[in-house]
Amino acid sequence: MLTILKGQPEYLSRFFQIVLASGEEVGRNEVVAQEKLETCLVPMVRGIHPVRDAVSIFRMAALIFKVRPSLIHSYTPKAGLVSMLAGWICRTPRRVHTFTGLIFPTTRGFKRLLLIFVDRLICACATHIVPEGNGVKRDLEAFKITAKSLSVIGHGNIAGVDTEYFSPLKLDVSARGERLRRELKIPDSSRVFCFVGRLNKDKGIGELVSAFIKLPSDARLILVGALDKTAPVDNKTLGEIELHPRIHLLGFLKDIRPALFIADLLVLPSYREGFPNVVLQAGAMNLPVIATNINGCNEIVEPGFNGWLVPAKNPQALNLAMQESLSMSRFDLKKMGERARARVQDRFERSDHWGRMVHFYRSLLSFDRKPVQ
């Protein structure tokens, strides 16, 4: 999460005294150097582990008791559970949790009930709840997760995008992009689709591969991201990825800009999202987006304006959208990409979001409860 929020804590520290809490030791020194802030370790584990979670809550409560903050802000589900419970125990006056996405709407049975219980518990312990986007807000209301006031900050998202950094005009990015194109032996005439994210079944990788292999021979697909064992892609799909001559699996890349530079479109066929940063990053790189009609994606992508929206878990609809994009001229596709960048600059510029965060915190600390616009 601190990778997504890179630079934001340091900026906020110009206005407030900030202490960071991280659940992982790996990378903590890098965060300290990057943000120039005190960063404390509070070990946490993924999933529900009653004993280890109780230890995490105790450790967080000890940290809160030591620091005595006026406000706590958490983002991920586990950090929210630990921080909001510990903050409630310590009676921290302002306890803020941001829901970056909800897992339970796509689950069933006991797991769904457990996840709903945890989200309700987080809300019960928080004094202020921030949905990352309007789709998340609607789900929180529809499933009666909380009766408390819900306010989206700006147009949504938790970080914004540095559109100067994510720019196709940067010479070093274009040079590395062209080098990557040569390494992958992708002809200039090919139409390149790019996926960026964890490679797991919930990202719609199976549907993406199924839709892509039916495209004409001049289409290429780049997959950027590490294999995720928590929700693994099926073996058939993995086999097709490994053997197909026009699918390029690059794995995790610290810098995704060269891959986006040589792409013509981003494709994100996820089953669920909160407010996907990669769609904003791709838009900033002048790329139209083909995405599923789910929370977050449908708050960024406007069909016909800056991309396409298709139903989730529907490879036929995904294939049709990809076919339609292939039928467009490069000029028209470029115009769509330019509109995508303009929208990101207008609504999701990082510096603007940071300013809204300062206003948000000041409004809470001054007891101004008006929604942030």
How would you describe this structure to a colleague?
With 373 residues, the protein is an alpha/beta fold. It folds into 2 domains: 169 residues, Rossmann fold, CATH 3.40.50; 177 residues, Glycogen Phosphorylase B (Rossmann fold). The chain has 15 helices and 11 strands. Strands 8-7-6-9-10-11 form a 6-stranded parallel sheet, sandwiched between helices. Strands 3-4-5 form a 3-stranded parallel sheet, sandwiched between helices. Strands 1-2 form a two-stranded parallel sheet. Strand 10, helix 12 and strand 11 form a beta-alpha-beta unit.
Overall, the morphology is globular
Query: Which structural class matches the secondary elements?
Result: alpha/beta
Binned strand content: 5-15%
Within the largest sheet, what's the order of strands? 8-7-6-9-10-11
Number of helical stretches of at least 4 residues: 15
Nearest-integer average pLDDT: 93
Distance between the termini: 24 Å
Biggest sheet details: 6 strands, parallel
- Taking all Cα atoms into account, the compactness measure Rg is 21 Å
In the predicted model, the low-confidence regions spanning at least 5 consecutive residues are 368-373
The strand count comes to: 11
CATH homologous superfamily classification of the largest domain: Glycogen Phosphorylase B
Protein name: Glycosyltransferase family 1 protein
Organism: Acidovorax cavernicola
Domain Glycosyltransferase subfamily 4-like N-terminal: 20-154
GO molecular function: glycosyltransferase activity
